[in-house]
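Tutorial, part two.
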Amino acid sequence: MGKFIDFLEKRVSNPMARLAEQRHLLAVRDGVVSSLPFIIVGSFFLIIAFPPLPESWGMTQWATENADQILIPYRMTMFIMSLYVAFGIGYNLAQSYKVDPLSGGQIAVASLLLTITPSVVEELGFVLPMQYLGGSGLFVTIIVSILSVEIFRICKQRNITIRLPEAVPASVSRSFEALIPVAIVIMLMTLITIIMGVNLHALVEKLTVPLVTAGDSLFGVLVPVFLITFFWSFGIHGVSVVGSVARPLWETYLLKNGEAVASGASELPHIAPEPLYQWFIWIGGSGATLGLVIVMLIFARSKYLKSLGRTVAVPSIFNINEPVIFGLPIVLNPILVIPFIITPIITAVIAYLATSVGLVSPTFIKAPWTLPAPIGAYLATGGDWRSIILVLVNLAISVVIYLPFLRIYDKKMLVMEQNEEQ
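Running the prediction step on this input gives:
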């Protein structure tokens, strides 16, 4: 067993951990994360516009009559999240290269906007379609943001910039240093979008159809669930590793579902936005460890596990489970690693099937991740009371799975404590 763990750590875990620290993946991750306040706040206006209340209630009638006005904050935040993500990616990538991050963010935004061709509407003049500023444009956003900052970096490193005397204020000097890179990026994107007539969004959408389809399948859900708990088993932040790659897909699903709700669609297109994982699979955190904490509180006999259970109970309710992972520990623990990996796989299968057959509504709202799971699930599904039942069912299943393994570990700890007392 020890040799197998050493092999996994050396050949799989360590290389993937290094991949997670790759500059561009980190910039994408941080860029997406930086937009979360806009996604969370914007998504709650979907609840206001479509309240989870009976249609006969006055609040529901008022919301229906005023939905267009209520949804304006949503359309200016979550609906155009690619605009915020572009700035975040550009800023963080430029900062990692130690070039002006503000210029990096601005260049990325300009590059994204230049992938969209304005239309002329009578009485309004030029109008910029918002279609590709949301979930549909996220992949192009990532590509052009990275490309733009790389052009900026190359120009800076090779001194292809305008240098001003040292007496000039730093803010002015930085602006002129970005002048040539900005010109190159604008001319390049104009060449692609206007002169060559290439619709990058349509092109990338065709290329990513297999990826999007696969990620929304049961297999596509189980792969990240397994990998996240696998990396945590070695003490590596699994969500940081896997999320760097998967989060753009998850956010695309979430935004597509939100757009469908805002347009009045009766069915939502995607099953597997990130809230599916957050509220139905990782109850209490990666590994669904709230069930483990409940088992500790009720069944533990050793002093250490009893004390630990009381200590980590409140954080676990709010989905903070690092104290559990490192306190037991679960990391490199051959007894507890097994249920830690198996439990979320089983809850993932149940959650996916329940959503796919219509027993629970798909998620379309980004509720704050520190909410207790039943509340977060209720909000994320737009007020579907059945989501609370699904959370409780999966929580009960996690308790059943963790129970025999925790008892084995508890007996081991009890023996150790008795030996220390003698």
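The longest strand covers residues 119-121. In part three we will examine how such features are distributed along the chain.
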